[in-house]
Design goal:
By secondary structure, the protein is mostly beta strands. It has two domains: 250 residues, YVTN repeat-like/Quinoprotein amine dehydrogenase (Methylamine Dehydrogenase, Chain H); 79 residues. Helix content is 0%, strand content 43%. The strands form eight sheets. Strands 20, 22, 24, 26 and 27 form a five-stranded antiparallel β-sheet that branches. A four-stranded antiparallel β-sheet has the order 1-19-18-17, with no helix packed on it. Strands 5-6-7-8 form a four-stranded antiparallel β-sheet, with no helix packed on it. β11 and β12 form a beta hairpin.
Length: 346
């Protein structure tokens, strides 16, 4: 069932927002106040030729990487060097699954999880969910209710987190992975590639064919949210419950906003002297396909100032004229007024 009132809209390619779960800043001598921050990337030596699928940073110094053939890397010096702390990898000496997701707890950096492809050991096929409480020095396999290829994990805390994977698989734990419970069965059959938990209740997941799933009740129910694209979506990140991005194939960027529309005005401000008048041009831009009429109004105007809109309501994307009259003759309000556009959204 589609989640009414939620939606994503397209943004032009050329920018990627990786959010808090991204690599962060890894340049020697990097100044976080530098206006050029993020515009320069330098190579680091990984020590492996395996494909690296995911990275999770704990601090400016400590980060973890997982990849194909049971690859696990760790740095404690900001990537100056990357080490392989395990002789045989996360899964041990007799298995080599591809790991696609890794997540460590920032406040407790020794605790982390890695998830990946299913693997067969001595004739039995297992799901790849592994946990460490020693900073990656050793790992313990956790039980899964289903055996699927897992693509991503996001732990909101040491106890609560979600895993997503092939065939629309969603798993949740509330006890640090001692048990994982399947959620959202039947909502979608699409492979899910990325998950982001905003808090213990609100979670987003994205995947094949542009599918986007959302829950606001900890996963008791999951709903499909229209993305406006059929391109595969491989990553999702939210800065807050009202602002998020999903990225995917062919340069796709989809942006989520809890606003139905955005209002701008030209000029953004203007000074109108007593006895004078002037115009502003408000422009209403749709967000997430919003197309209903927007009634424009203003509140909080100072004494002696009046306004009118022409037309009084617009349907985005559209605009109009806001006429402002400054008739204040009282001496105590002498001089010019600096008036800013304001809208009272109905």
């Amino acid at each position: 069932m589609a989640d009414q009132g939620l939606g994503y809209h397209e943004q032009a390619g050329g920018h990627r927002d990786y959010g808090e779960r991204g690599l962060g800043s890894w340049g020697a001598g990097h100044d976080p106040q530098d206006e050029q921050a993020g515009e320069s990337w330098s190579p680091q030596t990984s020590g492996t030729t395996q494909t690296l699928y995911a990275v999770d940073k704990i601090s400016d110094s400590v980060a973890f990487i997982v990849g194909s053939s049971d690859t696990f890397l760790k740095t404690t010096n900001g990537g100056v060097s990357w080490e392989k702390p395990l002789t045989f990898g996360i899964a041990g000496p007799f298995a080599s699954p591809d790991f696609h997701g890794v997540d460590f707890i920032t406040s407790q950096p020794n605790i982390g999880w890695a998830v990946g492809s299913k693997f067969t050991l001595f004739g039995t096929t297992y799901a790849s969910i592994f946990k460490t409480t020693g900073g990656g020095a050793s790992w313990t396999k956790q039980s899964s209710p289903v055996v699927k290829n897992f693509r991503d994990i996001d732990m909101f805390s040491t106890l609560v987190g979600w895993i997503v994977g092939d065939d629309g698989t969603i798993l949740k734990t509330t006890n640090g992975g001692t048990t994982w419970v399947q959620q959202g069965v039947g909502v979608t059959a699409a492979d899910l590639y990325s998950v982001h938990a905003i808090d213990a209740n609100e979670v987003w997941a994205v995947g094949a064919g542009g599918v986007i799933l959302h829950t606001a009740n900890g996963g008791t129910t999951w709903s499909i949210v229209s993305s406006g694209t059929t391109n595969h979506l491989f990553g999702v990140s939210f800065a807050s419950s009202g602002a998020g991005w999903a990225v995917g194939a062919s340069g796709t960027i989809r942006h989520y906003s809890d606003f139905d529309f955005v209002i701008d005005a030209l000029p953004s401000s203007r000074t109108i002297a007593a006895g004078s008048s002037g115009n502003l041009t408000p422009t209403i831009t749709s967000a997430a396909g919003f197309s209903a009429p927007v009634t424009l109004s203003v509140s909080g105007e100072p004494p002696g100032v009046s306004h009118s809109f022409s037309p009084p309501s617009v349907t985005p994307p559209s605009g109009g004229i806001r006429h402002i009259q400054h008739d204040d003759k009282r001496g105590r309000f002498g001089g010019a007024r600096h008036l800013y556009p304001y809208d009272n959204r109905h």
